[in-house]
Design a protein that fits this description.
Number of strands: 0
Number of domains: 1
Order of helices and strands: HHHH
Helix content: over 70%
Length: 169
């Protein structure tokens, strides 16, 4: 369980870094607005913002999943173990998406694709996307482990008599 806490702390640390990136982007945009009012502008300011926004999103999704603050569809909520099945499918899907983002990142790096004005390489943004997908996958695995341990603990606390009675119902 120590490894789980380390992963959880890592995801939280990434979300704190993400918060600093949001503040830096906010300051840059405000500075650009003020400079435009003075007749100047930050060269490539819009380009920087369009590159940084996906970074912000994909660095934040892991923490969102860890805290289970993501959007859920409750259509199967009444079905036993359906949360486990849908979470398993999400874990597999997100891991596959992360893998293909990683492959795409290496392809973009080999092509040398860069932004138009500032010539910022595109591959780090694609790699951050892959990293974000893997963080969501890890967060969902952590949540599943926690749910499973809660289930085991609740069954142990019920005792054998209560367990049989609830199974009969």
């Amino acid at each position: 369980m120590k490894v789980l806490r380390v992963i959880e702390k890592f995801i939280r640390a990434v979300s704190i870094l993400d918060g600093f990136i949001v503040v830096a982007l906010m300051l840059m945009i405000n500075a650009d607005i003020i400079l435009r009012a003075l007749g100047k502008s930050i060269t490539g300011g819009v380009e920087i913002a369009t590159i940084v926004v996906p970074v912000i999103v994909f660095l934040g999704v892991g923490y969102t999943a860890l805290k289970e603050m993501h959007i859920r569809v409750d259509i199967f909520k009444g079905w036993p173990y359906m949360d486990r099945v849908t979470n398993f499918l999400c874990i597999v899907t997100l891991a596959v998406i992360g893998y293909f983002c990683l492959v795409q990142g290496f392809q973009v790096k080999s092509l040398g694709t860069a932004s138009t004005v500032l010539r910022i390489p595109r591959w780090p943004v694609v790699m951050v996307t892959a990293f974000g997908m893997f963080m969501v996958t890890l967060a969902m695995i952590l949540n599943e482990i926690k749910a499973y341990s809660r289930l085991i603990t609740s069954r142990k606390n019920r005792g054998p008599e209560l367990s049989r009675e609830s199974d009969a119902e």
